[in-house]
Amino acid sequence: VLFRSMWSYPISIGGHTDNIPLSGTGKFKTNLHLSTARALETAYYMVNVLKIDPKRVTVQGYGEYKPVAPNDTPENREKNRRVEIAVITNENINSSFGGPKGKTQEQ
Question: Sign (positive/negative) of CA torsion 20, 26, 27, 33?
């Protein structure tokens, strides 16, 4: 029940990659393209399978620019290849315009 009630809040989906450059000849030209595709696939699943209201979902691709670990070993690079889902529990999150900072619950 708690899990389902979280879906009434805005949801932010962020895709990430490691820092190994792509060849540019495959399906994705850059890590930024790949990270965005990861986030989009997650959003697609949430909207079409979990039936989350698409108006509540935002997608962002970060490429290699927000690592959670140094990209110095295969294990750490694996940690950086991820999708993060944040449930926004306070809709007045835009502190840039003087509003309070929002609280998120990372999934």
Answer: positive
